[in-house]
Each structure stands twice: as structure tokens, then as C-alpha cells.
Amino acid sequence: FDGYLRNSVSNLGACIMNNLESYFEFLDATRESGSINMFGAPKLLETTFGLSKNESREIFKAWTETFQKSF
Prior knowledge:
Distance between the termini: 18 Å
Number of strands: 0
Strand content: under 5%
């Protein structure tokens, strides 16, 4: 991921950063499935990956920012 994304989640730990692509792929697949309203995705990240509330929110925020950059 580019520097922009790395800067947007800079307060997350190294382990989270190393898995960021996996989290984004999970979020992409969840979005494409249409199985949930994506505003519930942070909680899904928490329960699926054992993340803290803050970690899951920061990952979700960074993921949503990838859509803003494409406009």
C-alpha cells in the first residue's frame, strides 16, 4: 500500500500494518457479497480477527479512504 494509506493508519501496530492488505481484501469481499451494511464492518473485523475496537475502526477508516482517493 502506498504512503498515503500507511500514514492514515500510522497509529496501528506493526502486526496490523503487515496484515493490512488481508483486512482490506476481507472488507472488499464482504462489501461485494452484500451480506451486511458496511457500517457494521468494524465490529465484523473485531470478531473475525480478534482486533480491538480502535484497531478495527482505524482499519475500516483507512479502507474507506481508498474509495475517496479514486475520485
